Amino acid sequence: GPGQAEMYAGLQELGVANGEDLKETLTNCTEPLKAIEQFQTENGVLLPSLQYALPFLDLHGTPRLEFHQSVFDELREKLLERVSAIALEGKVEERYKKLEDLLEKSFSLVKMPSIQPVVMCVMKHLPKVPEKKLKLVMADKDLYKACAVEVKRQIWQDNQALFGDEVSPLLKQYILEKENILFSNDISFLQNFFSPSPKTRRQGEVVQKLTQMIGKNVKLYDMVLQFLRTLFLRTRNVHYCTLRAELLMSLHDLEISEICTVDPCHKFTWCLDACIREKFVDNKRARELQGFLDGVKKGQEQVLGDLSMILCDPFAINTLALSTIRHLQDLVGQDTLPRESPDLLLLLRMLSLGQGAWDMIDSQVFKEPKMEAELITRFLPLLMSFVVDDHTFTVDQKLPSEEKGPIPYPSTIPEAFTKFLQENRIACEIGLYYILHITKQRNKNAFLRLLPALVETFSDLAFSDIFLHLLTGNLTLLSDEFALEEFCTSLFDGFFLTACSRKENVHRHVLRLLLHLHHKVAPAKLESLQKALEPTKQSGEAVKELHNQLSEKLELRKPSPAEVTETPSMELPLPTVPTPASR
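C-alpha cells predicted for NELFB factor:
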C-alpha cells in the first residue's frame, strides 16, 4: 500500500535496498531463486559466522524475519543507549555536533516504526532541533504525537496557538474538578473544599501535567500565565487564580530556579503558601508579607496585578478571612479597637488586594485599592458587638434568675450590618465568614439572627458556590434543629428558596443538603420542600438528577398503608421540644 512505500522511502536515500528493489530484481531476472539468494547475501547481516548458523535456524523452523527482527531490536537498544550516552559526554559543542549528524542521517527514516524511536531519541537530546526538522514534525500529526515533550516544548514556544490547544483541555478539566468538589454529595464539616493541604493539591493531575509541559521553559510558563489571566478576565472564575499559585509552587517544589527566580511573586507566594497550610497568618509571616507589599518599587507596580491574582485564590481568601475572625475575637478579649491592630489592618489590606484582582487586571491600573475607613471604624466593631452579645447571653443564662424571667436572645440586626453586606465587598466576605464561624460553633440563636442579612449581599456572594458549600457542611452540626418548623422556615423559605428559581447553583446546594439531612426534617415540611424544589423546564441535568435521588429516598421512607394502621399509639413519635437556648 502507499503507507508502506512512504514508510520505507527513506531507505533508498541511504543506499539501502528495500522491497521495491527486490521486486525490480525479480521482475527482470531469469532464475528467481538464485536472485533471492543473492539479494539475501547482499543485504543480510554481514557476519561470516552467520553463513553456517542461518541454515541451522532454518532447520528449526525459525523464520529469517524473526531472526533479523531480534538482531535489529538488539541493535536498536544499543543505539538508543549510545545516543543517550553521547548526549552526556565530551564537550558540549562536540556532542551536539555528533547528534546533529546522526539526525541528518536518520531523519529520512523517521516514518519507519522500527527506526522512529531512535530518531525521536536523538531529537529529544538536542537542545535546539534544526528549525526545518521541527517544521516537518509539526506538519505531521503522527510524528508530532510521537515526539518527546522536550521536542514539543521547542515547537510550542514559537506556536502559541498550538500550545493553547494542548493546554486548553487541561484547564477545562481543572475547573470541572473544582466544581465537582463544591457540588459533591458528601457533605461534612470535617472534610470540605479547603481541607486538602497545598502540597496535596499540587499533586493533582492537571498541575503535574502542566509542570511537565513547561519544564524549565520560561517562555512556556509565561504563556500559561497569560492564558490564566485571560480566562480569569473572561469568566471571573477564581479557580484560575488557584491554579496560578499552584503552578508556581509546583515548580518551586521541583526547585526549578530558571523560572522561580524570574517570577516576581515567588517569595510572596511561598510565604502565603505556608500560611494557607496552617490556615492562619501568624505575626512573623504577616511581617514578611507586608515587607513584600511595601517593597513594590516605583515603575514595578505591574507586579501588583500578579500579587492580587495570587491573593484572589479562594484558598488565600479563606486563610485571610479565618485569620480576621480570629483576630476580632482576640480584640474583644483585649478590649482593643480594630484600628489599633496593625496585624488586622494588614489582613484587610491583603483581602482588598485579592478582591480587587479582577478590576485591577481589567483596568490595567496597578495600585492598591483604597481601604474604606468605615469598614474599620464601623463594620468590624459591629461584628465585635455580636461576639459580646453572645458572651453576655451565655453568662446571663448561667446566672440564677430572679423574678425577671429568662433574658431573650437579641433578635434584631442593626441596619448598618445589612447595608454593609450589600454595599461593601470586604465587609460582605468577612460577614459571611463570621456566619460560618457561628454555625460551626452550633450557635443557632446567632445564626437565625443574622441569616436574614444574607438574602441580599454584595454581588450575591451569599449565593456563591464556595460559601454555600461551606455553609451546608457546617449546617450538618445543627442537624437536630431541622425537626423544628421555625428553623426550617427561616433557613429554607427565608433564605434558600428566595434564590432557587433564579440561581441554578442554589437549587443544587439545597437539594444536596436535603439529600443529606432529609431524615431530620419533619415530614410535612419535607413534602412542601420537595414540591417547592421540583425542577422547571429550564433546570439542568444536575438538578433533575438530585431531585430524583431525593424523591427515591423519600419513597423509601414512606410507610406502607398497612403499617400505618397497626402502629400502637405509644410508639408515635414524641413531639420535639425545643431545648433551652443555653446551647
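The chain is about 70% helix and 0% strand.
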